[in-house]
Amino acid sequence: MAESNSPHEELHQELHEESYEESREEPHAGPNEEPYGKPSEETLRSLFKVNKHARTYATKAHQHYQADNHYSARRNSARKEALYSVKGAVLARIAGRADKIERHRIDGSVYPCVYFRRWSFHCMTEDLCKTEDLCKTEDLNASSLDIRDGVEKLEDFEKDSETGSVTRSLKESLIHLRDAFGADANEHLPEKRVGYYFAGWKYLG
Fold it and tell me: How far is residue 175's CA from residue 178's CA, in Å, rounded to a whole number?
């Protein structure tokens, strides 16, 4: 028999907020800190942490769906979509200053992979084409860009940089990307409320 959703969801919410709203010094970046320069280490670490949490939300959404906890599944899925959307929005702003962009074939589809120093991030082609000049200069759909075949799977798309553990909270990361690039994760939610619960991050306002 399926577990009652409301108490389970309330506990799920409290545990996640306690985990992600850990007491750390919040970033002090001002608005539009670096949209036109080389991305800082803080930005790249924030993107990595956002991507890692998006993958966690995807896993939890699947687990809750399998357990018939549909409200919890929807909330985790909404958060996953918001974080991947934030990642794409920020990459669209900084990809023009990348060290290089490759195309990787993953599970039969081709995705750009954007490199900054030791960091790399897969994304959707349409994310980069939000910046019109980038599409013109890199021509991401052209055969002139090499495609790496047969070495990657979907989990590699989600994993991105091989950088090990990043000691940075999701709260720090989301606040930094909001303040530096205007990429507010709450504005990227596909639905703001799931049942009685706010789907997003209260500390973003």
Answer: 5
Q: Are 92 and 131 in contact (CB under 8 A)?
A: yes
Q: Closest by alpha carbon to 46, among 141, 148, 183?
A: 183
Q: Is 60 exposed, middle or buried (0-12, 13-18, 19+ CB in 10 A)?
A: buried
More confident residue, 24 or 91: 91
In the chain, the amino acid numbered 134 is: L
The least confident of 47-56, 68-77, 108-117 is 108-117
- How many CB atoms sit inside 10 A of residue 33's CB? 16
Q: Which amino acid is at 24?
A: R
For residues 175-184, one letter each, b for 16 or more C-beta atoms within 10 angstroms of the residue's C-beta and e for the rest, the string is: bbbbbbbebb
The more confident residue out of 78 and 102 is 78
Tokens describing residue 27: 């970033």
